[in-house]
């Protein structure tokens, strides 16, 4: 009887325990199916959701004829799901680092990231050529390694290599790093999209066809069309490079402007770099020195000084000057580039022979502050605002520190500084009949990342000197390339009338802030002289062959101008060249 009673008790206890366990399971089932089924289903689904960025295609940077200077080509990103790749991380990292040329340690860390943000999505490699990325993922799959996928990821391409590279800039691993790519990044970049989809972890990360998914399409960036002529830019860079190398110089710059529109057809800097492989060139050569590096322009400045003096009614192209061998200014003496006694030059002769003393003697007729006012109108001391970052405004002394001794030196291009595009635009003012037009690098209009709208549609014009003054200066400048009267016959272009001006200036050392014995040589001019189509300005820094503006920069001007005139089908005017008297 006792054993039967014990058995009965045990059975009763067993039934109670079983009932309690079933109650717990029942309650849980009611909770899952009745009270909050959606929350638990969402939580389960979330475990399998993957978010993928859909990159926008970056806008192209084109030359004036629609030729690409920077564009985007097909590429893929390689993506890892660490929850699937972690178990074979070392093997996968070895495979990917070899095939994609990426860092092994960084890749291994991404493949092993199984907790926290990014534990289901890691970029392994970006901007990979499509065939290379596909082959790498397929190789992993053949070895039985799951968790790698690919998505569209356009690659930035620079088909022109070094052509206009300083202007165009380039894209680095963290985004745009220089030039137009950096300055107009918002315009070019567009807006990335996003895709979310559900995948089956048990099936190696395969996307579930009827699973949860959403997509926000990317908005591609806008194109940017430059005023640059790719072929003319290429030719100019090659001619400039050879001149710098032949002169054993430090660097050079060459600018070609459309005289009537202010459009910059060429803006060449040398040394330069290949935008496809910027890392192969030192960083100091990846900027835009023709905008960022100010220098004293030397005798090209006489074009601005004396045309302003003519406009002010103080002199004419035939004004006679008695020029001594030296001229005292303040506590120092001014000399010409050649030793001479007293010579008799017309104003045209002062330009043709580039006489510093003659320029100062004539400029003494300016009223106080008058020259500075003209130079401001020419655009000196102000940025051209063509849209690129890092442009220097140069240095035009303020009225508070301007004195007579400074003005004497400013007359012939010392004691002030300019950037190359700034000076080219100033000389172009004479070519365009005395009207200055803002230089432009962008056709139409575009807003850079600094919020400044630039381009040919926004360019403004202002009269600086009269058409009559500009005409007289043009006739004077023709005498510079005359084989007998001038200093730069090598700047002439056979069959065409050419107006130009040489420049040689002492350079200021950034170390001692003093003249260090090196020079800037240059040549600026336009053609055809009596109906200008192009203005070209060439600058060479520190030629070590002893050459000057006429012998070093003049031939560069001649070659580029000849090429530009032929390329654009500009016929000779077939009118007689200037024969203004240079002596009396």
From TrEMBL:
<dbReference type="InterPro" id="IPR005311">
    <property type="entry name" value="PBP_dimer"/>
</dbReference>
<feature type="domain" description="Penicillin-binding protein transpeptidase">
    <location>
        <begin position="252"/>
        <end position="561"/>
    </location>
</feature>
<feature type="transmembrane region" description="Helical">
    <location>
        <begin position="12"/>
        <end position="30"/>
    </location>
</feature>
<feature type="domain" description="Penicillin-binding protein dimerisation">
    <location>
        <begin position="54"/>
        <end position="173"/>
    </location>
</feature>
<comment type="similarity">
    <text>Belongs to the transpeptidase family.</text>
</comment>
<dbReference type="Pfam" id="PF00905">
    <property type="entry name" value="Transpeptidase"/>
</dbReference>
<dbReference type="InterPro" id="IPR036138">
    <property type="entry name" value="PBP_dimer_sf"/>
</dbReference>
<keyword id="KW-0812">Transmembrane</keyword>
<keyword id="KW-0472">Membrane</keyword>
<protein>
    <submittedName>
        <fullName>Peptidoglycan D,D-transpeptidase FtsI family protein</fullName>
    </submittedName>
</protein>
<dbReference type="Pfam" id="PF03717">
    <property type="entry name" value="PBP_dimer"/>
</dbReference>
<dbReference type="InterPro" id="IPR012338">
    <property type="entry name" value="Beta-lactam/transpept-like"/>
</dbReference>
<dbReference type="InterPro" id="IPR050515">
    <property type="entry name" value="Beta-lactam/transpept"/>
</dbReference>
<dbReference type="InterPro" id="IPR001460">
    <property type="entry name" value="PCN-bd_Tpept"/>
</dbReference>
<keyword id="KW-1133">Transmembrane helix</keyword>
